[in-house]
Amino acid sequence: GPPPAPGSPPGPARDREPRRRPAPRAVWLFVPIALLWANTHIGWYAGFILLGTHLADALAAALRPAARAAALARARRLAGVGLASLVVMLANPGGWWALAQPFQFALSWRFEPIYRTIAELHPPIWSANLRNGLPLLVAGWPLLLLWRARRRGLDVAEAVLCTVLTAVALSSQRFLGTYALGAAPYVGRDLSEALAGRLPPPWLARPWPRGVVAAAACVALSLPEWTRPELPLGLGLDLSGVPVRACDFVRDHGLRGRTFNPFHFGGYLLYRFWPDRGRLPFMTTQPELTPRPERLLYARAFADPAAWRELDERYRFDYLVLDRNQDPGDHLPDFLDRDSTWAMVFADDAAELLVRRRGPFAPVADSFAYRVLPAGRAARERLVEACGADPALRARAAAELRRQAAASPWNGHAHHLLGLFAALEDRPEEAQRHLEQALARRPLLPGVHELLGLLALREGRGRAALRELGRERALHGPSARLEVESGQAWQRLGDPDRARAAYRRALRLDPGDLEARDSLSSLGGYR
Q1: 525's torsion region: left (phi>0), alpha (psi -120 to 50) or beta?
Q2: All residues at 6 or more sequence positions from 295 whose CB lies less than 8 Å from its CB, including other chains
């Protein structure tokens, strides 16, 4: 119908609202898209959710006599597109089994331990999504939907999509991107209509100023997310988390045979060594391709020494490519530190490579085994503590750390410990150099900024100490220890009031901190 006259109120019924719909044939483009989708990603069903929402909208519109004929034609067209898409999707090389995978995951796989270790399958962490506005979007979309429904009638497609996508997004971080994409056109339309009745300032009457304001608003909304230190802006491949140099060692020293690896390393191992069947991974990034009993035993092997021994006896692994950054439930490297069967021959920030001490790789173990540095986090922590009191052990550990640092460009952990050892031996310039190199490789490494702050504090550079302690706090959160050290820096700067405030914050974080209590008492307590 014709557009309403200027100034006339919007009609309450949906069939009075003017709409611009795409040409009926355009929706059939979904069929080739569905064919490509099924051949590339397990999330093919999202397209059918979108089709279903508009089918529900068409059926709801058919309940109104004035719009029945057009709505039924639209419903038949959408149903035909859905049926044709399902037929062509069976052309997937995996056949019907590939289409069944989302349902298998929803009904079975997601309850297995191996899938519970995948962080993106966990529910959203709200504190990690404050900068990107997710809480505002989750709360605002339903409110805008209801506001528009009250003025113009319910948009059934929007209501169904909002309900489904919100439920899915709240169940798994994996679907947050899908949720945002689905919400964007509806939230944009509803917000535009909500603001349409407000008269803009005269200087916004022209298109160019409005465009500039809209672009500036987009940039301003994005700045908090763009400035997150853990997600720097840029294009490229981040190889710091994959076993690049470990695979180089495998290649250069002729290692082959049965490999054990965490499944998230499987894709890179395939990329590096395919089609060499003597270097294939034990498990790939598609664990569902591994039989269920092996998946269950694999998951148990990281937490149960008996399960690891059973797995190793069954497959008799020749070498292990392990993730150096152990998850909270990953204790396998700690088990292996207590097992003389294995020798760690390579380590960097991403991976550790272990070979059997006996057998075909015994010469490699004899030549390259680390004698002091362990594979597991628990033993590393004990080693650092022991090195603090034993200069001879510290010297041997430092020699192996220098070798580790030279073997890979991803060596932030090695430089961190070298910096710590240099600080213990009162070599501040060397310590500073190693710690700066650690941050250059791993900007988010915990404790490095704090150690730089302590070096500055030792040298009487209070302002520099406060800057480094502030960076540690911003990256890794507050702690009583950081507040005590900040209080000491303020004392060095001759500001007892700020020092007292820092010690009070320390006691709020940890009421039992004796150093904070004694320091506060020496400054006159809560005066």
Answers
A1: left
A2: 112, 114, 283, 287
Work out whether the CA dihedral 157, 163, 164, 170 comes out positive or negative: positive
Is residue 362 scored above 90 in pLDDT?
yes
Please tell me whether residue 516 adopts helix, strand or coil conformation.
helix
Which of these, 344, 307, 305, 340, lies nearest to 322 by C-alpha position? Answer: 344
Residue type at position 232: P
Tokens describing residue 140: 């605002």
Residues 163-191: tens digit of each pLDDT: 999 999 999 998 999 999 999 999 999 99
pTM value surpassing 0.70 = yes
pLDDT tens digits along 236-292: 888 999 999 999 999 999 999 999 999 999 999 999 999 998 899 999 988 988 999
- Give, rounded to a whole angstrom, the gap between the first and last alpha carbons of the chain: 76
Q: Which of 341, 391, 388, 395 is nearest to 369 (CA)?
A: 341
DSSP 22: -
DSSP letters of 121-176? GSPP-GGGGTTTTHHHHHHHHHHHHHHHHHHH---HHHHHHHHHHHHHHHH-GGGH
> What is the structure's pLDDT at 24?
66
Cα(430)–Cα(444) distance, integer angstroms? 21
With beta carbons less than 8 A apart as the criterion, state whether 375 and 213 touch.
no
- For 521, other C-beta atoms within 10 Å of its C-beta total 11
Q: Among 117, 8, 31, which Cα is nearest to 79's?
A: 31
Name the percent of the chain in helix, strand, coil, to the closest 5.
65, 5, 30
